[in-house]
Amino acid sequence: MLGDLDLCIPHIEEGCLTQLNGTSTLSFMAIELLANLDPPYHSPIHDMESVFWVLLWVVSHKNVNVAGDNPNPKDVKLCEDMSVANMTMDLVADVKTATMVNMQDMTPRRSGNLEPFRNLLVNGFNLVRHYKIRSQDLSADGETFSDADIETGFGEYLDVFEKNIPVETDWSHVKEGA
Question: Any idea where the Fungal-type protein kinase domain is (predicted)?
Fold first, then answer.
């Protein structure tokens, strides 16, 4: 699904400044875009991070809804953490950073409905963390990702999905419980 195409920033040259015009969904924005007071350079790397925030939001909310009256407390907490109403951008960035750092603990093996997505989420957020650190290092030097960096990053993100996306057999426990 594609949306907000009217707000796209053409990638004509490296280092296009982002347009923080209040139309973004904080729950899905890249941490660096939330935490930076100066308008940061917008990069497709930020958009790739957003995909994992969308995935995490969808999976956690679906798990709580499927569980009915007995949801996993970790799933409920995750849904609450991703509900960013009345939060400042800095606070949202802090909550998301903590979520990313604790991803492995939040998705333990045999964790019910989240289990099929465990490897995708853990490996995806490890990659997000890697590029977040890399972006901070580049910013400190007044630089941004090159076209080659973006191409490599995109390939790495696709690789994470291809190797870790759940298949139908991963959902057998959900079908049996339905």
Answer: 1-59
